[in-house]
Amino acid sequence: MSHPPESWRAPARACARVSSRWRNSTGSSQSVHARGGYTLIEMLAAMTAASLLMLGLAASVVISTSLIEPTDEDGQRTRDRVILDRLQHDLRYATSIDSMSGYDVSIERPDLSNQPQSLQYEAYMDGLMRNVSGGTSTELDPQAPTVNHYVDGYTAATSNLNLRRPRIRDVVTATTTGGSASSLTIEIPDGARPGDLLLLVVASRNAFFVNPAPSGWQQLDYSFNAGILLDLHGQWMSTSTPDAYLLNFFWGGDVVAAVLAIEHANGSWPFGWSGSSFGTSINGNTSTYPRPLENTDTIGERTLNLQLIASTGAPSPQTSLGIASFSECVNEVGSPGTSGECTLGIAFRTGPMPPMTTTPHVLHQQSANWTTIAVEVEGQSE
């Protein structure tokens, strides 16, 4: 058998190598043709899978929506609460309420600047609307509720009189400096008004007596201890009350005084009860310090509870008298730094002291002789 010439062998070997590479990459020596479409079974399977996927997504959307959106009943309850809160706020400061028809309610009240403001709630064809001083109405509920308007009250014959709470309107103080003076001027508080109860409180040492002039003051109570005297005077302020008074005392006396202007005190007789005490403070022993006094049988919830404390030296810190549950309006030292140094403190509260595990007391940081007067001031009837 004859062999092909050598010139043919090289192209033949190249074609064999190309054919071998094609079989290795395709796995077959057959030619590959592009598909022209899908079978009916494949299309039905794809549509079924897509339908199942859409049903799953729709179910998740419904579940999520039901979790985050309230039902109609929940939404109505929320609107009802908002309407109720708004109506209660409007009624809280209302000065008048009226209903002109069966579908609206008018309310008069002051606004934030204390100017008259008119509010109207109307339940009609547009639902429940709220209008402020004739402005644009606001829809509170698309549904119109039924409007019911009632007036409740009682006649004056069956009512009980209320007591107006007495209150300290203003305070002034005056003190000696420790020199050889024999008088001290004290003014009436600027805030005092005719009809106010004026109380003159004087703590003194080395003075023997303190006499206010001009006359008009009535001595109400006094208390004393070794080296310290506490006086209480009172009068009603009128249009003829002087602007200032002169306190006369023995030459070289040491005095600290205060005038309190009290409004709404009972004009018939303002004092429900008074009491006094005295003692000596021992530094570090709180049981020896002055304590507030009150009569639990007479004091009322609106009673002005006054505590007047006089002491030798300056035992209390100038920042506070330290009486728990009481506020203070006076904490002054007369003739400071001298042998006649004396202190006047005045504390007050409304009503009786609250129950406490430890009885309140005046804070003393050094030993001193002291004396106190407690006064209950009653209010006037409304």
UniProtKB/TrEMBL annotation:
Pfam families: N_methyl. It comes from the Bacteria. InterPro entries: N_methyl_site. This is Uncharacterized protein. It comes from Stieleria neptunia. The lineage of its organism: Bacteria, Pseudomonadati, Planctomycetota, Planctomycetia, Pirellulales.
